[in-house]
Amino acid sequence: MMHPPILSPGRSLDSRLLTQGVLDEATIWQLLRAILPDLQQQHRQSVIYQHLQPSVIVQHANGQFHLMAAATSSISPEYAAPEQLQGQPSPASDIYSLGLICLHALTGVAPFELWDSTTHQWLWIPYLTDALSPQLQLVLAQMVAPQVSDRYPTVPSVLQALGLNHLIRMAPTATAPWQCLRTLDGHRSSITDLACNWQAQRLYSSSEDKSISIWDLHNGRLIEKLLYHHRAVNSLALHPNGQFLASASDDKRIGIWDLSQNKIVELLEGHQQAVKSIAFSANGQLLISSSWDKSIRLWNWQTGSELSHLTGHRLKIGAIALSPDGQFLASASHDRTARIWDLATQQTVQILTGHEWAVTAVAFSPDSQFLATGSDDHTIHIWNAATGELVQRLSGHAWDIGSLTWHPHNHTLISGSLNPAIKIWDWATGQAQSVHGHDDFITTLLIAPDGEQLISGSRDRHIKLWQPNN
């Protein structure tokens, strides 16, 4: 909860708008300079405000603005972002709400009346009493973009666009177990997955922007973009020989890419809904996929033919993982369960129950003895993979778990969530250290076989390369 500074008595912005009318551009700049840093501070503490509306912004007699504590009001649908109303708030949701407050303050017209449902656009420019500077007009338009992928993802990105870089508050400087070496920037939307040929130092990243990028890890250079899918690319799998890459998409298809030509050579079709996760078998003969159609499918990826169809989950399946010994498959479902499958018999051997919400991530330990599951209930469970016994419950994330990976040489678990911090767990004790650097949901994590490099992808559109902070 925020603790606002002690200031002279003031009144809320909605009260001022009622009595004095619209704000001019200079006052809007003043409002943004005051409120944006407060929002960034909350986001760094893993708090999304969610209640932004004119009634929670107070202007004092000296002209200074501040944000009231979020608990003082309820959420207003008129100012809430579409993804927030669907139960998926992010820092970009607060940016959207603040943008709408500015439009209301500049025009005197409430947001419901500014939205044109025919063109699906905000029609606010005609209501301005005075022309705005082009810079502020462009920034406000992007702040209120209906699609989150078209909006500023973080407060620092808004401050940078406004030329207010000096107000950006830096991340904590306390010693962390990993330090960032390089940031890769090239996607136009959220990073969804990563795959790497560590020997060749080639990194592959997928994104909601429908593309796959190929990076040179030596220098961070973008080598090429692969385009084929016409919807978000959700998952990547690199063949054990490093010559082929598989990509899964919301367009229900799986593409097989020949990396010597960077062209699709086979297309796997059969899923009825978005394909969310894929993996090659340990010997590279099979490709395994999971989908929101509640099924897992095994494919002969060279011919494009489906070999078998595994069912059992009652709701959509968001993630799968293969055990390092190649014998078992784990699946995570919105039905609040995870399953462990014997690949030889293609039968379920364990049904893991205990999470209170959707299971969103699964990862086997390096020795295949344990399975970690992450959930929208903000917890991580560690299971004995052979018996299905719950051996540890990790809590510490403030938001949904999005990604899990194990350190290859010990039982350290690494997790990412809607909270922008990466957590490094000693899972036996339940203790965790945090690694900061991203400004939005950590969507994917990848660690090198020698454990000396960690790569993270985020909804902030960035990929970060980390090394141990010894």
UniProtKB/TrEMBL annotation:
<feature type="repeat" description="WD">
    <location>
        <begin position="394"/>
        <end position="435"/>
    </location>
</feature>
<dbReference type="Pfam" id="PF00400">
    <property type="entry name" value="WD40"/>
</dbReference>
<feature type="repeat" description="WD">
    <location>
        <begin position="226"/>
        <end position="267"/>
    </location>
</feature>
<dbReference type="InterPro" id="IPR015943">
    <property type="entry name" value="WD40/YVTN_repeat-like_dom_sf"/>
</dbReference>
<dbReference type="Pfam" id="PF00069">
    <property type="entry name" value="Pkinase"/>
</dbReference>
<dbReference type="InterPro" id="IPR019775">
    <property type="entry name" value="WD40_repeat_CS"/>
</dbReference>
<dbReference type="InterPro" id="IPR055442">
    <property type="entry name" value="Beta-prop_EML-like_2nd"/>
</dbReference>
<keyword id="KW-0677">Repeat</keyword>
<dbReference type="GO" id="GO:0005524">
    <property type="term" value="F:ATP binding"/>
</dbReference>
<dbReference type="Pfam" id="PF23414">
    <property type="entry name" value="Beta-prop_EML_2"/>
</dbReference>
<dbReference type="InterPro" id="IPR001680">
    <property type="entry name" value="WD40_rpt"/>
</dbReference>
<feature type="repeat" description="WD">
    <location>
        <begin position="435"/>
        <end position="470"/>
    </location>
</feature>
<feature type="repeat" description="WD">
    <location>
        <begin position="268"/>
        <end position="309"/>
    </location>
</feature>
<dbReference type="InterPro" id="IPR045184">
    <property type="entry name" value="SMU1"/>
</dbReference>
<dbReference type="GO" id="GO:0000398">
    <property type="term" value="P:mRNA splicing, via spliceosome"/>
</dbReference>
<feature type="repeat" description="WD">
    <location>
        <begin position="184"/>
        <end position="225"/>
    </location>
</feature>
<keyword id="KW-0853">WD repeat</keyword>
<dbReference type="InterPro" id="IPR000719">
    <property type="entry name" value="Prot_kinase_dom"/>
</dbReference>
<feature type="domain" description="Protein kinase">
    <location>
        <begin position="1"/>
        <end position="168"/>
    </location>
</feature>
<dbReference type="InterPro" id="IPR011009">
    <property type="entry name" value="Kinase-like_dom_sf"/>
</dbReference>
<dbReference type="InterPro" id="IPR020472">
    <property type="entry name" value="WD40_PAC1"/>
</dbReference>
<dbReference type="GO" id="GO:0004672">
    <property type="term" value="F:protein kinase activity"/>
</dbReference>
<dbReference type="InterPro" id="IPR036322">
    <property type="entry name" value="WD40_repeat_dom_sf"/>
</dbReference>
<protein>
    <recommendedName>
        <fullName>WD40 repeat-containing protein SMU1</fullName>
    </recommendedName>
</protein>
<feature type="repeat" description="WD">
    <location>
        <begin position="310"/>
        <end position="351"/>
    </location>
</feature>
<feature type="repeat" description="WD">
    <location>
        <begin position="352"/>
        <end position="393"/>
    </location>
</feature>
